[in-house]
Amino acid sequence: MSVTSPSEIKIPYSPKKASMPNRLQAFADVWLPRLVLSPTVFASLLFVYGFIAFTAYLSLTDSRLMPNYELTGFGQYQALFELDRWWVSAANLGIFGGLFILFCLVVGLLMAVFLDQKIRMEGALRAIYLYPMALSFIVTGVAWKWILNPGLGLEKMVREWGFPDFSMDWLVNSDMAIYTVVIAGVWQSSGFVMALFLAGLRGVDDSIIKAAMVDGASLPTIYRRIVIPALRPVFFSVLLVLSHIAIKSFDLVMALTAGGPGTSSDVPAIFMYQFSFTRGQLGLGAASAMMMLMTVLAVLVPLIYLESKEAKHGH
Amino acid sequence: AEVEVLHYWTSGGEAKSVAELKKMMEAKGVAWKDFAVAGGAGENAMTALKARVIAGSAPTAALIKGPSIQEWGNEGVLANIDAAAAEGKWDASLPPMLANIMKYKGHYVAAPVNVHRVNWLWVNPEVLKKSGAKVPTNFAEFFDAADKIKKAGYVAIAHGGQPWQDATVFESVALGVGGADFYKKAIVQLDQASLTGPTMIKTFDTLAKIKTYIDKDSAGRDWNLATAMVINGKAGMQFMGDWAKGEFTAAGKQPGKDFLCVAAPGTEKSFTFNVDSLTMFAVKGADAQKAQLTLAGAVMSPEFQEVFNLNKGSIPARAGVSRAKFDSCALKSMDDMDASSKAGSFVPSFAHGMAIDSAKAGAIQDVIAKFMNSNMTSQAAVQALAKAAKTK
Amino acid sequence: MGTDSKFTFSPGRIFIYALLIFCALYYLAPLYVMLTTSVKSLDEIRSGNLLDFPRHPTFDAWQKAWGGACTGVRCDGLSPYFWNSVKMAVPAVLISTLIGSLNGYVLAHWKFKRSEIIFTALMVGCFIPFQVVILPMARLLGLAELANTTMGLVFVHVVYGVAFTTLFFRNYYISVPDELVKAARIDGAGFFRIYRSVILPLSLPIFMVCFIWQFTQIWNDFLFGVVFGGTDAQPVTVALNNLVNTSTGVTEYNVNMAAAIIAALPTLGLYLLAGKYFVRGLTAGAVKG
Amino acid sequence: MASLSIRGVRKVYPNGAEILKGINLEIKDGEFLILVGGSGCGKSTLLNMIAGLEPISEGDIYIGDKCVNDVPPKSRDIAMVFQSYALYPTMTVRENISFGLGIRKVPAAEQKKIVDRVAETLQMTHLLDRKPAHLSGGQRQRVAMGRAIARNPSLFLFDEPLSNLDAKLRVEMRAEIKLMHQRLKTTTVYVTHDQVEAMTLGDKIAVMKDGVVQQFGSPQEIYDRPANMFVAGFIGSPSMNFLRGKLQTHQDGLGFAVEHAGKQTVLPIPTSHLQAVKGLRNKDGDIILGIRPEHVTDAESARRSESANGYHPTEVDCVIDLTEPTGPDTLVFSSFNGERITCRTHPRAAAKPGQAMRLAFDLSKAVFFDPETEQSLL
Amino acid sequence: MASLSIRGVRKVYPNGAEILKGINLEIKDGEFLILVGGSGCGKSTLLNMIAGLEPISEGDIYIGDKCVNDVPPKSRDIAMVFQSYALYPTMTVRENISFGLGIRKVPAAEQKKIVDRVAETLQMTHLLDRKPAHLSGGQRQRVAMGRAIARNPSLFLFDEPLSNLDAKLRVEMRAEIKLMHQRLKTTTVYVTHDQVEAMTLGDKIAVMKDGVVQQFGSPQEIYDRPANMFVAGFIGSPSMNFLRGKLQTHQDGLGFAVEHAGKQTVLPIPTSHLQAVKGLRNKDGDIILGIRPEHVTDAESARRSESANGYHPTEVDCVIDLTEPTGPDTLVFSSFNGERITCRTHPRAAAKPGQAMRLAFDLSKAVFFDPETEQSLL
Ligand SMILES: Nc1ncnc2c1ncn2[C@@H]1O[C@H](COP(=O)(O)OP(=O)(O)OP(=O)(O)O)[C@@H](O)[C@H]1O
Ligand SMILES: Nc1ncnc2c1ncn2[C@@H]1O[C@H](COP(=O)(O)OP(=O)(O)OP(=O)(O)O)[C@@H](O)[C@H]1O
Ligand SMILES: [Mg+2]
Ligand SMILES: [Mg+2]
């Protein structure tokens, strides 16, 4: 700016009059945000909390085909806990949830790290890894069933290639069926996890890596000791999303094994659906739903707590 | 006026059959709204139905069968169609056993569409011939044949490891091993003594033996893929209801020549039935109610029963339908139905929800499925069965 | 982040490429099976190996799936349901995204007492199992005369989609400096004006993320569609399910596969076209690195 | 344009933290007030309260003679420039500047005229169609100022507007802001943590710490007579030197006695200065001497610029630890009584580290503090 | 410890941009080299190449007498401090410092000893168990330095280590770095865009622009005899004043003639200086005079500190536009021949804006430039 041209600014307009009375404006500033948020809050109160309360109530009744509003106590929970099938589902959820989350994390992270190495076809590969997210399991279930079926898919193919001892019969093996669900689940979700991690990796300060290189660390060491630990917040988000998928997984199991062979790959979501809607044991279904919700809370609350704690102490 | 019908007949022959009904209704000036929901054993359809009923917009009719009709009746949401029944003289043309199923507290609330026979054994004569086996009529012969087939390098028994298929085999075995009275006592009345008695143990033993003739890839296989194994000559025999016939005919096979339909071993005199019925829901408005009665009448009309069952492979529920166009298997079915009705061996299929209410049926099905897919002993199985039968 | 081009031909690099390509095969396998099966004839499917390449590719199955296959008494293929899905998904995606965006704006820049708690409470909505809500929701829709309509479906998807969109937008808007809002307030803009003139133009990446996410969720939803769709508003997933699931009939695998791919085309297309915005949008905000 | 008066203002955040503990400030129409202090002392909070962006917990703020406690920001007739510039990233420079005008329903033609004139004054006419992302730091800063000027408010608020610029640009923009204020004469409140900005820009400076105003006065006042050791240390770069010692009669006046290099050294206090610092007279025990680097120079320079009243700075031999040539001067660091002292010397006179050098202590501008209360003894 | 030699180094990025266009620099063992220049001139690129983090397109870099072109970073025996500190966020301070040691397989006990010693030297023993997120900017900076020191490398590299700190802290840390270098005597390359840091820290300064070294020399050399107008304007704060005028014989020497306030003013050039600036003699047409602000002062100060050789700074009356009191001095801005000039005056002598003031131009340190080439006339 030159000092020498003090062409005096005279601005004719001077906003002395507010367009809205001050009171009203102040009022709007305070209340508009709440007003905007309120439909969502009310919807959530009714459609989430209200419905949870409704389910909790149903779980205390003897509802069969249709809701019945007469309270009968905790009998449904007792019945639930006596059911083998419930415990099978719960155990399956544990196995599936644990492995699914573990493998998604490992596969997603590895792919993200590798994709981050200035890979030539990064865009195309990323699209390939991500596309299963786009498909519903109603769509891909049949394909997976074929691939994993020993008589039709992978096993047959590999045997025809000249490995007659190759065996991949998990789908039809009661003890292993739940693991095929893990395979398909990882297939569907690990790409998304990869995307989240990739986004996280791109956010890591480049100079940290340079510093570590100068410090003498090799690339694997740098990732292991420095970069990946720095992705901690991403791990939290990923864990949150994955546990949500795991607990709610329904389509996946339904399409692949429908809980079978027998009930060996049953999970709580299917359990609940069948008991509530086809077996006319709505009360029992509601009790199992409540147990599911409690599991969600048991996973969620510590996660959210940890994350908010971390965020507070973080930057 | 229009009728809205919830069903899960969505594929091939069955869809064509419903289309016939639609045509007939439209001819009578009633529009047809098709509410088709496939999947599972009507699981999704039931879910949708409940939502509709709760929302206060129940469909005109829904495909509900067996004891479930009573369960829905208890909820007080069904319509009385006595008027249509009177007009069509249903009492006269339906076997009393069936008529009872269609009634709630003495009033008709549902119209039967067909009768499926479940205790069939489907046989590929070519395979049997090559293995030197003959068509079995009891379990001794059956296992003898199975051994031979197996030795010849075929799969003896084509089976799909889904709970309802397991249950189908189970009920045929129970009927074959224990006879109709045992079946009724144990599986329909859920008599604890029969459930845990030696006959039931023998049933499970037989089932366990059958397991050994099933190929290991059966788990989760759809029934029609299993049927395809018989059609293609990969397998010798299959336990399955008469709908399997549709697969054979679709593949251009002739009954009696390319494939045989015989009663499951030891059940020649008995008949396990699976009756599809359209259960009528209370609807509002005189128009709608009238259309509902029209629908009920149409379903029970001999014309419809004929076309529908020709398409679907089952036999008409009512008497007085021309037998002319039905094939040999169907004719055999019709004869057996008459005979077994008289002999008291006309029994409801448990595997297809005709025998007991859904909660108990589900629990028992779980036990059978577990037995089929684990090393459970017969002893343990009957204990579990007895416990499941107590499900409320 | 790998810092050097030196590594280009090292064994490590080759290993990485090999691994990435192996992964790609794993991801592509089901798609391959679906595609090849959809162009085989039924005979070829019955007789051959399902991993074989089709010998006489034909698009009959595609035609049938789109316009001729039966899903009940109707034999119009997927096409009518496809448009049902479009009519449902487009408004539901737009509305839930817009509401999520406004909510996120409030929660990030117009915090008030307890707004953080409200945010956390809203998040629970992401985790509710949908099976739980079917019956009470059906009752409410019935009362509101929305049962069995596209409107009703849109409503349900909006209600249960907003939790996610709010989460996305809030986390994104948190990264928009507060000072921008302050500056606009001093400039005289009110709540909505700031949203429209300052926040909205900045939101393209996160809108893309939300569009993709919501569209995938809503398009692929089956449960709500079958339960609340009635007869007139059934989305394509329900039709596909009807087509694929046969209780007592012949299964036409090639038609099933073609139908499956047709039903997935919009989401697939979205991922292919806008997938890069997805990763970019996640980088921009949703993830705190 | 308007005066600004802040009366007993307190701020307690919802989390219970009391960030401002009763602030009283008053400036006249057209004055330039600087709020300076360390990070987190509450400067931005106070500024936001003046702008109406944060509610006031207690007390009143008057702009002109109107209490604005309940007036929303847009009706306070203020403009604000932020540290991060807060330019609307999706708008061009022209749109950024005219946004506030548009909202106030200024006709389009008028808007254009205003924007053009502002752009001309700030020499950024060629930037008008660019987006902020395509501007350099200095240009962005300029646009932010332009946006503020365009509205011709009666009160300007600046929140560390220069701290994102590099040193060179900071110096230039500082002068521009000062010129702008001279031309427009708009009352201004300016937040900074940079004491150089505070000194060079302000008519009045309020030095803040922990939500309390430590001293409020003109820059020279604050520089020459800091109210306490915090202010003394904070204002001035390099910082004031503090030496601990005792008062002692020396000749006919007082001297400041301090141990150095093993023996007692007495720095006499000029009598003229003694009169100013009345608090000294009856002070026993240790006191703290505050002396600015420019008053500890090489003996030669000192002699040359000796003050008129015949006072001779005391010369002391010191060993040099470190030198920092800045160009015009060279800073010399040395130890005195075990404490690091900084001296500003002529480049030619500076010795090498490790060598001895004769330093002259000019106490005619020295200040003294009570070691307990850290308050100035005046 | 080692010398560093950069010979004809060029850098072309894969996108084809030539960022460094042949750099030649040479420093001896233990020297402190500053790379200074505007943003984007290639400083960081050069530093990264010295560190081995970027491949060299052409030329050689020697550390000691070994060409390190193909040596990976970890084997170059260097340590580096980054602008963003680049502390490992998930590790404690102790782990941060010992990470490099661990990788080099230093035994744990040894590591602990080293860390403790380093922490003590940098006075951060109490911070050892904290994570970087819980440190203030200054503390982080200290840890980053600690990490570098711990490895006891033969070459230190700093990339703008102070630019994220506020002004006050920057001054302190600057002194610490200088002290550290004095103690350790490790060869150091230090990148900055702050000319004050360059002046105060460096043994040698390389001023860069657009990938070319404009001048390479000691700080005083560069300050007193800048090679061109870019260097002259870049080094020194406030910037050197440039005046356009003509040479004229004046008395027995030369004078610099310039229009001011409507009439011709001649500023005589001291003869002693004339000898130094030989390039002037046969110069026709316009030339540019460069004169630093501290050489344009108030007449009174000028008279007092008159140079020994009898040269009198020329006094000229000027109208003051703006004053900036910085404490020890007051900067005065005025116009001269239509150009802004900055003068450094005694606080007491500064006039108010709008008033006239007598300024003394001391040309004994002036430099002259060719207006075309902008090169210094020496
Ligand atoms: N919304 C809030 N809730 C609680 N505490 C807050 C809030 N905003 C600011 N603070 C706290 O108030 C104190 C003063 O903040 P303020 O931004 O006014 O500092 P500042 O003097 O401007 O510092 P800086 O120079 O770093 O900008 C800080 O300790 C900060 O943590
Ligand atoms: N990987 C790269 N590819 C292409 N150009 C690059 C790359 N890295 C940096 N540049 C360009 O090289 C030039 C010099 O960058 P460099 O980081 O060395 O500048 P600098 O002098 O350190 O600036 P600053 O003071 O802003 O840090 C810049 O114009 C930059 O855009
Ligand atoms: Mg602040
Ligand atoms: Mg740089």
TrEMBL record, chain A:
Keywords from the UniProt entry: Cell membrane, Membrane, Transmembrane, Transmembrane helix, Transport
Positions of transmembrane segments: 41-60, 93-115, 127-147, 176-201, 222-247, 282-306
Annotated localization: Cell membrane
BP terms from Gene Ontology: transmembrane transport
Signal peptide limits: none
Positions of the ABC transmembrane type-1 domain: 90-305
PROSITE patterns per UniProt: ABC_TM1
SUPFAM superfamilies: MetI-like
Membrane topology: Multi-pass membrane protein
Top-rank taxon, per record: Bacteria
Keyword Cell membrane: yes
Membrane among keywords: yes
GO CC list: plasma membrane
Classification via PANTHER family: ABC TRANSPORTER PERMEASE PROTEIN
Family from the record: Belongs to the binding-protein-dependent transport system permease family.
Protein name, per record: Sugar ABC transporter permease
Organism of provenance: Undibacterium jejuense
TrEMBL record, chain C:
Record carries keyword Transmembrane helix: yes
Membrane-crossing segments per the record: 14-35, 88-110, 117-138, 150-173, 194-215, 253-274
Domain (ABC transmembrane type-1) ranges: 82-274
Location of the protein in the cell: Cell membrane
Keyword entries, A-Z: Membrane, Transmembrane, Transmembrane helix, Transport
GO biological process: transmembrane transport
Membrane protein topology class: Multi-pass membrane protein
SUPFAM superfamilies in UniProt: MetI-like
Domain of life of the native organism: Bacteria
One GO cellular component term: plasma membrane
Family: Belongs to the binding-protein-dependent transport system permease family.
Protein name: Carbohydrate ABC transporter permease
Species of the source: Undibacterium jejuense
Lineage of origin: Bacteria, Pseudomonadati, Pseudomonadota, Betaproteobacteria, Burkholderiales
TrEMBL record, chains D, E:
Keywords: ATP-binding, Cell membrane, Membrane, Nucleotide-binding, Transport
The ABC transporter domain, residue ranges: 4-235
Signal peptide: none
Keyword match Repeat: no
Protein origin, superkingdom: Bacteria
InterPro entries xref list: AAA+_ATPase (IPR003593), ABC_transporter-like_ATP-bd (IPR003439), ABC_transporter-like_CS (IPR017871), ABC_transpr_MalK-like (IPR015855), ABC_transpr_MalK/UgpC-like (IPR047641), Mo/tungstate-bd_C_term_dom (IPR008995), NA-bd_OB-fold (IPR012340), OB_MalK-like (IPR040582)
A GO MF label: ATP binding
Pfam families: ABC_tran (PF00005), OB_MalK (PF17912)
KW Heme (keyword) present: no
Single GO biological process annotation from the record: carbohydrate transport
Gene Ontology, cellular component aspect: ATP-binding cassette (ABC) transporter complex, substrate-binding subunit-containing
SUPFAM superfamilies attached to this UniProt entry: MOP-like (SSF50331), P-loop containing nucleoside triphosphate hydrolases (SSF52540)
Protein known as: Sn-glycerol-3-phosphate ABC transporter ATP-binding protein UgpC
Species: Undibacterium jejuense
UniProt lineage: Bacteria, Pseudomonadati, Pseudomonadota, Betaproteobacteria, Burkholderiales
Gene: ugpC
